[in-house]
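#dry-run=false #mode=assembly
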Amino acid sequence: MIGSSAGAPERALRLAYEVGLELGRRGAVLVCGGRGGVMEAAAKGAKEAGALTVGVLPGLSRAEANPYVDVAIPTGMGHARNAINVLAGDAVIVIHGGPGTLSEAGLALAYGRPVVALRGSGGVADLLAGRTIGGRRVHSADSPAEAVELALRLAGGHT
Amino acid sequence: MIGSSAGAPERALRLAYEVGLELGRRGAVLVCGGRGGVMEAAAKGAKEAGALTVGVLPGLSRAEANPYVDVAIPTGMGHARNAINVLAGDAVIVIHGGPGTLSEAGLALAYGRPVVALRGSGGVADLLAGRTIGGRRVHSADSPAEAVELALRLAGGHT
Amino acid sequence: MIGSSAGAPERALRLAYEVGLELGRRGAVLVCGGRGGVMEAAAKGAKEAGALTVGVLPGLSRAEANPYVDVAIPTGMGHARNAINVLAGDAVIVIHGGPGTLSEAGLALAYGRPVVALRGSGGVADLLAGRTIGGRRVHSADSPAEAVELALRLAGGHT
Amino acid sequence: MIGSSAGAPERALRLAYEVGLELGRRGAVLVCGGRGGVMEAAAKGAKEAGALTVGVLPGLSRAEANPYVDVAIPTGMGHARNAINVLAGDAVIVIHGGPGTLSEAGLALAYGRPVVALRGSGGVADLLAGRTIGGRRVHSADSPAEAVELALRLAGGHT
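#status=ok
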């Protein structure tokens, strides 16, 4: 799951929480950037539904992680860690998002990971939903449940 | 300068070559991903105008670089090297581009590097030109000369 | 835990397995490079004792991980991922080891993570045990139990 | 060239300067970590002998580089940039050195780059000179001229 650490509207946070819940209900592991905002809301939802949550952090300390992250991986690499974030998941769900999220969507497409943008969450998700970039498609979903359903289905084709 | 290694149309390659020429005439150093396509066209132009050219490569060997790269830096980091690519420049010019370029534009915005998209070159450049993402603006230029002029001016405010 | 993926003698693998068991008994999380040899032996021990095991992989696919890794993080960064390996742990135990392990010990010292070398396991561990490098000490332990005890104690001072 | 940014004795700085001079006389490009201490001394020597100097920096800004670096590459990756440092050279010369240098020597061996340690410069260089680690040899030289001669010869076999 990728999305903004700050500046996301209430609606995006609620959608992120629901995506987390849904991932947890399906028995998935949530991987995210480990910090606040959309990432924290999704991790909270996933945790409440019993999922294991992983946060790949930009800085040097596990203390950077939000309280819903079980396994915190500090990288000391700043935004270069965005590449790891998307590689660690079998599919990527985009919720709202700013510059960092834009880079993660690009990295996921470059590495061939399936990308699903949650339409209506604003930001980068709405900019990219349904577009084809360099021959690679950004899939579009209209609700948290649909986004998770689609991501898990697309992840099946990937190892 | 960021842009696709493959799949760019003839028009984008010509624009990239002209951006390279213009950068060289202005005494700038060209930093790029070091490989083919748009990157090679820009490096060729820059070299012909006497510029020093630097290529930050995804793989392990300097042999990956196109023939117009003076200083080749293999990183062995795949697309995670995209972060270095944009940090090594004082401003970023986007020409055409696919998923890797999308990630580089996002990384440049995230790191606060000025980004100028060459409108009319297609791909990611046309998608992003003039947009504001998470409060950060992607500047727009309509010709190679204007793109270089704008990039050098914006770079002045950055160290 | 850091150590060779290949070429380690039987004795080093047995010691690694015992370090893993001991970490699991103490309720620690094992973080390692996720591949074979010493890493696999330690992960096997940790798993058998009920620990959560994390593997930070050099390549692009989770399929690279050994069968005892619960959370596999592909990085696509080759040996540059060694920096993450040591940052993700609160203390580092060195068992046997070749060039990659040497780099990890150096990175751990550079980042200020406590380093404990298991004396008698051969390779890099025996080379570094008890030495001071640039003012930073490589601690020495003579058994798996002592190494884990010391690592957990030193980790207490670190966050 | 790899070596400490701080804490190196006068003798090590003098040797580094001579290695730089010698590399410049032979027409080599000097790649280093770009900061102070041994790196700055070597870059100063190389520059005086007319070499192009490249510095791969840990932080986000080119302003981190010492004044003798021509091409500064900020990476924002902290010590993970050590992997790039050694990949960017065709051979690696170790002068004195602490934890960061230890990691770079390990990374160079792991990536199969030839490593030459300048015996008598202290620190990591003296610890590693002449040793075999995981089947890979750290070559030993007794003077700056011998170190450069050996490094250039060994680099010939590498691309």
